[in-house]
Design goal:
The chain contains 36 helices and 21 strands. It is of the alpha+beta class and 1036 residues long. Helix 19 packs across helix 24, helix 21 packs antiparallel against helix 22 and helix 26 packs parallel to helix 30. It holds the Pfam family DNA_pol_B_exo1.
Length: 1036
């Protein structure tokens, strides 16, 4: 009997679980780094037997074609995360159970473990335990239901494309390269200790907190510094300690009369100790001048070589120096290793405009200033370079972002229960700065490059390629008794104009279903220089000037070659295709050929070492970085000879000879391929040093065989070290236009799964919004894999409908363009980044972005006839104003469809007709009476819905007559909908609360790089429908 009862009770539960799973809109998909769904490290521990059915959400990828990703994610759920890193007084439960974690990335280690009970306990300490108890009281029989939920999700997840998928809020993009969509997946390069010696460098990272005037940015003229946080790191033990890293803070405590050793008396304890902070080296100052002196003492004690901050111009060191100057304290000289030099110790941008735009205008003799965000611009390709975004992709951690107003309120809170949050906020950042450099091994790599190029450490990061080439070239030229020419601007302007350009063919633009080989000359320009001995020291000038006794123009200067010398060298002269004479290596080996030969030989040695250590990924990655540095310095040597506008020693005769000879080499290779009948090949595109060869009807195996034969045949027709290398096979591919192509790449014969490889199209460009890249890449993959246009049409229309219905996440539609500085734009320029900046400057003079910083913006709907520039808004403004909507028409017709049209028009498809077939739907959200009484600014705000919330039929009475005849059903369904809205809101805000350690009603985080922020905004707007539903229940 009992079994029968259990069976009867269980069946409706399972059915309800399935129905509920079908109704879930977007909690079951983790499709991209922009998805708000929790990775495994954010999930509630699966070992807990008391997890809640309503809180359990599937972590499945939304990609139909990649099941392995989803399986990996499910396996990784069971992995344990690191010990949390925070300064929160919250501790673990007494019974040893782990805390419930909902972080949106791996949880950071917290710094206050072992807080004394007397000082560590605050009213917040019980919150974690309350949450655990609340969670443990909820549903217990989860396993069977979770199995049903996961089964249903998997069916929905991996159904064919013809099956109707449930709607999600995210734009569906291609499969991820890794489980959580990190742009780079790197090992810690510092683990390769055997490859580089100890650098003996000490780093000092600081961030500071200033009391701001409400929502304004900190201004050194008005806003005092309240606390300074620092982290000191070295690769050797620090002075007077065995530690290699120390974190601390300098805090202004005006009540300095309170004794620090007051035997645990809370009222008389120091400022941070009262807030439950421990584990930091904290020193207190009575005012800002004392704080500056404390900073000087720290620098004198540890003598750091490198001073760094994430943004050192407006914040960190820049703000510290500007605030000190406002108080008539010359801190710049006090922290210098040469304090008496007033001229070189400076931090004003007008004294170093180049430094202000490249690294930093701060110059402190004897110490290197690193502006980390500018360094990251050259290290990783991201859409924006905020600390939060860079940390997510490099450190694989998510950090919250709070406004200056929130931070000031927390620090000044009289209850002392919020101050630990601000300490955690800044300490995680100063440590994060060090971790970013360590993860990329930036200090070690830069030190090695400085030794290789023979230039200073800072110049590796700030100077250009000519500086590096000249440094290496002069070290070879000096023993040969050569000195370099330094032409004036007038001499450079009078130089002969370049006469030759590289060969860039116009491709046969179409979709290629047959194999296309890609062959590339290995370091073509350096190889040409070595093979034909092209150099400043071996050039005799243009042949039309030879045989005369007079001087003739050569480069920026002049040259004289006597007829007698020319007669003696008549058998040892080579003539370039541009008509320039050079002597053979048997007469004189040039400086450039000798330098490049040494570089390329060293690079070959490094690549051989990579093969020997191919099983060690860390060492392989380090050697890859080294060989890449050698390759880059070799490839930019040609640019040194051709820099006719701002070059140090340009010479058009040498540059023309290199370019023309390379063009001739590529043309000969193309002719050889087209004329050899046994290959049955045809060159369809050529670009400078590479060519694309079409093989009609060839299999993959035949393609690789023919590709090797072509490479060997072309190499045999050229002098050493000119070598044609068979790179890859595209099968299939699309050649769109010059420099723009995409295909499925096979690099080896035994490679089973192709790699999506794109050049120049929107999938790899950053000037469009993420949705464009996602939709284009997914469409191309569908074309390559299915060759079915109906699948592409269905997918594109589904994504457009999400945008038209307002269901797409705004994060996928944020543009981020670089700001070039107010003086770089012409008057009246309509540039979105400039427009946003102008609006911000009218409110706050300190809010101007740095030069090179990417400014995020979106396009919204506006009044008819408004120019597009007036529809530009900041994303945070759209989140805070429910009346603003993304301009779906603009995004679809101007951003999403044109790139698709450029690809699909090659096979005769009109994608704009797909959009014209779609219905234009804009559902009006139901509002409560209080919201309806608010001030209305647009006509759409006067609209109201006439749909019954139960059956969606049209009615004039809130609830239709048909549903009114079933009152019990109406009450149950409306209450269920209210409950679902509240549950979704509670579930998503749990993530924010756990990440920010803030349990206030209003979530203070404003990080635009976190997908949860946009999810919270959307769920909150949906929750605004709940009061209206309650009004219907009350009236009913």
């Amino acid at each position: 009997m009992s079994k029968t009862i259990v069976k009867v009770k269980t069946t409706p539960l399972v059915t309800a679980a399935i129905d509920k799973d079908k109704k879930e809109e977007d909690y079951t998909n983790y499709s991209s780094p922009d998805s708000p769904v929790l990775p495994p490290w954010q999930q509630v521990s699966t070992d807990s037997k008391q997890s809640n059915l309503e809180d359990s959400e599937g972590v499945l990828s939304s990609r139909e074609e990649n099941k392995s990703v989803a399986e990996k994610e499910q396996k990784s759920v069971k992995k344990e995360s690191k010990i949390p890193f925070c300064v929160s007084p919250l501790s673990k439960e007494p019974d040893g159970n782990s805390d419930t974690c909902f972080h949106s990335t791996p949880i950071r280690e917290h710094i206050s473990q072992g807080i004394p009970e007397a000082l560590g306990y605050t009213p917040l300490s019980a919150i974690g335990q309350d949450i655990q108890k609340f969670s443990s009281r909820r549903g217990r029989n989860v396993d069977a239901l979770r199995k049903v939920l996961l089964t249903t999700q998997i069916k929905n997840q991996f159904a064919t494309i013809n099956n109707q998928k449930k709607e999600t809020s995210q734009i569906e993009g291609p499969s991820l390269n890794n489980s959580y969509g990190f742009k780079i997946s790197v090992q810690n390069l510092q683990e390769a200790k055997a490859l580089h010696e100890v650098q003996y460098l000490t780093l000092l990272s600081i961030e500071l907190h200033a009391r701001t005037r409400r929502d304004l940015e900190a201004d050194p003229e008005f806003d005092p510094i309240c606390a300074l946080f620092y982290c000191i790191s070295s690769d050797t033990p620090l002075p007077d300690t065995e530690k290699m890293e120390i974190s601390g803070a300098v805090v202004i405590d005006k009540d300095r009369a309170r004794t620090i050793s007051s035997q645990g008396n809370r009222e008389h304890a120091p400022l941070l100790a009262r807030s439950g902070i421990s584990g930091l080296e904290v020193s207190y100052a009575t005012d800002e001048r004392a704080l500056f002196q404390e900073v000087v003492n720290i620098i004198k004690r540890y003598d750091p070589d490198i001073l760094l901050g994430y943004e050192v111009q407006m914040h960190s060191w820049g703000y510290l120096l500007q605030r000190a100057a406002a108080l008539d304290v010359d801190l710049c000289q006090m922290i210098s290793r040469v304090p008496d030099d007033k001229k070189e110790n400076r931090f004003a941008s007008d004294l170093d405009e180049y430094g202000a735009d490249t690294m930093s205008e701060i110059n402190i003799i004897g110490r290197v200033i690193l502006n980390i965000w500018r360094i990251m611009r050259h290290e990783v390709a991201l859409t924006n370079y905020t600390f939060e975004n860079v940390s997510f992709h490099i450190l694989h951690q998510r950090f919250p972002l709070f406004t200056s107003r929130v931070l000031s309120d927390w620090f000044d809170n009289k209850a002392d229960t919020y101050r630990w949050k601000i300490v955690d906020y800044y300490i995680s950042r100063v440590r994060g700065n060090i971790q970013l450099l360590e993860q990329l091994d930036l200090i070690g790599r830069t030190s090695e490059m400085a030794r290789l190029f023979g230039i200073q450490f800072l110049h590796v990061l700030t100077r250009g390629s000519q500086y590096r080439v000249e440094s290496m070239m002069l070290r070879i030229a000096k023993p040969m008794n050569y000195i370099a020419v330094t032409p004036s601007v007038q001499q450079r302007a009078q130089m002969r104009a370049p006469q030759c350009i590289p060969l860039i063919m116009e491709p046969e633009s179409r979709f290629y279903s047959n194999a296309v080989l890609v062959l590339d000359f290995q370091s073509l320009y350096p190889s040409i220089v070595i093979a034909y001995n092209y150099c400043f020291s071996t050039c005799l000038g243009h042949i039309e000037n030879l045989g005369k006794n007079d001087e003739f123009k050569f480069g920026c200067t002049s040259l004289k070659v006597s007829p007698d010398l020319l007669y003696q060298l008549r058998h040892d002269i080579t003539i370039s295709p541009s008509g320039i004479a050079f002597v053979k290596p048997s007469v004189r080996k040039g400086v450039l050929p000798r330098m490049l030969e040494e570089i390329l030989k060293t690079r070959i040695m490094v690549k051989q070492s990579m093969k020997a250590y191919k099983l060690d990924k860390t060492i392989t990655r380090m050697l890859e970085a080294r060989q890449l540095g050698l390759k880059l310095i070799a490839n930019v040597t040609f640019g040194y000879t051709a820099a006719n506008f701002s070059g140090r020693m340009p010479c058009s005769e040498i540059a023309d000879s290199i370019v023309h000879k390379a063009r001739e080499t590529l043309e000969r290779a193309i002719k050889l391929v087209n004329d050899t009948k046994k290959w049955g090949a045809r060159v369809v595109y050529g670009d400078t040093d590479s060519m694309f060869v079409l093989l009609k009807g060839a299999t993959k195996e035949q393609s690789f065989k023919i590709g090797q034969e072509i490479a060997e045949a072309v190499t045999a027709t050229n002098p050493k070290p000119v070598k044609l290398k068979f790179e890859k096979v595209y099968l299939p591919c699309i050649l769109q236009t010059k420099k723009r192509y995409v295909g499925y790449m096979y690099e080896t014969l035994d490679q089973k799964d192709p790699v999506f490889d794109a050049k120049g199209i929107e999938t790899v460009r950053r000037d469009a919004c993420p949705a464009v890249s996602k939709i284009l890449e997914r469409s191309i993959k569908l074309l390559f894999e299915t060759r079915d246009i109906s699948h592409i049409k269905q997918y594109v229309q589904n994504q457009c409908m999400k945008l038209l219905e307002g269901k797409a996440s705004m994060q996928d539609f944020i543009f981020a363009k670089e700001y070039r500085g107010s003086s770089a734009y012409r008057p009246g320029a309509c540039v979105p980044a400039l427009e946003i900046t102008r609006k911000m400057l009218t409110y706050d003079r300190r809010s101007e972005p740095r030069v090179g910083e990417r400014v995020p913006y979106v396009i919204v709907y506006g009044m008819p006839g408004l120019p597009l520039i007036q529809l530009v808004r900041r994303p945070i403004d759209v989140l805070q104003d429910p009346n603003l909507r993304l301009n779906a028409t603009y995004y679809i017709t101007k951003q999403i469809l044109p790139p698709l049209a450029r690809i699909l028009s090659l096979i005769g498809i009109d994608v704009f007709s797909w959009y014209n077939e779609l219905p234009r739907i804009q559902k009006v959200s139901t509002m409560s009476r209080t919201e309806q009484e608010c001030r209305k600014g647009t006509i759409s705000q006067y609209f109201t819905t006439l749909h019954c919330p139960v059956c969606d039929e049209l009615t004039q009475h809130g609830i239709c007559n048909k549903c009114r005849s079933q009152p019990q059903r109406v009450i149950v369904m409306l209450n269920q909908e209210i409950r679902e809205l509240e549950r979704k809101h509670e579930q998503i805000t749990k993530i924010c609360k756990n990440c920010t350690s803030c349990f206030d009603r209003q979530i203070p985080c404003v990080s635009l790089n976190c997908p949860v922020l946009f999810k919270v905004s959307r769920v909150s707007r949906e929750l605004s429908k709940a009061p209206y539903l309650r009004q219907l229940l009350d009236q009913f």
